[in-house]
Amino acid sequence: MTKARLLCLTVTVMLASWLAAATVQAEEPLPGESEPQLLWCLDHFSRFHHYEDVSTPYGPSVDLMQELARRAGFKLIFTPQTPVARCFRLMAEGKVDLMSNLKFSAERDAIMHLLPYNKTVPESLFVRQDDRRQVETEAQLQQLTLVSIRSYVYSPALMALLKQKQRQIVEVDSIEAGLEMVIRGRVDGLVAPTVSTSEAINSVSSYHNKFRNAGIDFSRGQSGFIHVGLSRLSPYAAMEPILRQHLATMLNDGTVERLYAEPIRPAPQLNTQP
């Protein structure tokens, strides 16, 4: 082989190698370019995510969702404070990707993947502190007028009980509205999530020493889970297996318990979608 042909062959090989490397480099995404951005729709939810009078939500749910985003490799953004009922509509339309702190229902399962991550806490009956009536059994509820939270999914056992008492149930949009009805004597008691309602009472000075937990057990021996919801119409619905896996790991390695046990504090500024 002549020197000229050898030189030509060498140049050809080098050029082919350079073109191949350039092609691979061009196909590699720029940093952050392909990072999924999942939009979390949320309202204020006492004790779990605080979203009143602040621009940035904070609380255990926010910490948990940030940790999930870190592990699963997506960027977490969130809506402005949005009523839960509207969040459900947006999830059904695929206009938002995520919700959290959800109990299972067939209606929710139809529009989103429900990914379990923590056990539920039974609901409680909150009455006025000066109401001395003993309410320890479901039969004793028959003489009471109660208020429940619209759009909140109660445990199956309690949902069945509330349906039996439909004529004696008033619905309101929030825990705070329910507490107001109780304290004004318009109803006898509020049936609501134990932890969030206790937090709502503790956060308002005028509520201190005005309510008590009646102590009735609504669980009927049943237990369940709360879930993160991923819209079935989300562009990132295919991430369902990896999100499910990471949530299960976070539950098993103690991350969920640790995050929910920590004191509530304001979180660093997150990304908000207007």
Automatic annotation (TrEMBL):
It comes from the Bacteria. InterPro entries: Solute-binding_3/MltF_N. Residues 1-26 form the signal peptide. Residues 45-267 form the Solute-binding protein family 3/N-terminal domain. Keywords: Signal. Pfam families: SBP_bac_3 (PF00497). Belongs to the bacterial solute-binding protein 3 family. PANTHER family: AMINO-ACID-BINDING PROTEIN YXEM-RELATED, MEMBRANE-BOUND LYTIC MUREIN TRANSGLYCOSYLASE F. This is Extracellular solute-binding protein, family 3. It comes from Rheinheimera pacifica.
